[in-house]
């Protein structure tokens, strides 16, 4: 029964990794770009949600707001921040420097945004972890001796619904066809009439939405937020993305769940100190035997998504 409980716990934890891993996968699969601001957007949604629930909107616009509304504000700010990153890591630099920005400059500039946003949050709220005022009732189900918290179960359902919807968007919609055309060959897509300046911001909006939702779900499920919360989640989401396969949406889902399972079982059998060794050992083992991951391809952006 204890093993079954740990499996359930790993599934719930993996759902958070899945959401962030899918956000990484979008930028890798469409733009061939590792967006370092993703962990910070995750953190930003949780911290802003906590601040609005505890103090209210800034400049005295409101008193403390109910936690669902506060988290909605945090998610909206994560989307807005992601669009700011798009404006300055892609649109401005691409216009000014052209193809020289293809890889290095957007990557480094996104790292700059990560450090700026994270340190602004630290200046505003300190570095201590804060208790998030989520649901006050004990929302725990006992299913045959296995305990499942309702918010965690709802999180898993929401994550799966998002992934299914995103898969449909990419495969069936005109927007999805435009995104896949950009992933295949941006210059050819532009010649064929795909409006890159209209579609690329959609990638960043979806990235902000996914990270914001992940941060909100984490705050509700674990009842705690901090300016450092994005670092651990981000690295493990990257591990899940690589294990599942770069650029593969469903690969990111499987990889995130595998990382969640690895972490939970490692803590159960060997203790929390060995988690990083186990997760990154899994990543290195995957790279040695199958560098493209379980569902990935050798060439980023070719036949992906």
TrEMBL record:
Principal subcellular localisation of the protein: membrane
GO molecular function per UniProt: transmembrane transporter activity
Pfam (any one): BPD_transp_2
Topology in membrane: Multi-pass membrane protein
Superkingdom in the source lineage: Bacteria
GO biological process: amino acid transport
One GO location term (cellular component): plasma membrane
Keywords, in A-Z order: Amino-acid transport, Cell membrane, Membrane, Transmembrane, Transmembrane helix, Transport
Segments traversing the membrane: 12-34, 41-61, 67-85, 105-126, 146-170, 199-218, 238-262, 269-289
Location(s), subcellular: Cell membrane
InterPro entries reported for this sequence: ABC_transp_permease, BCAA_transport_permease
Family according to the record: Belongs to the binding-protein-dependent transport system permease family. LivHM subfamily.
Protein's name in the database: Branched-chain amino acid transport system permease protein
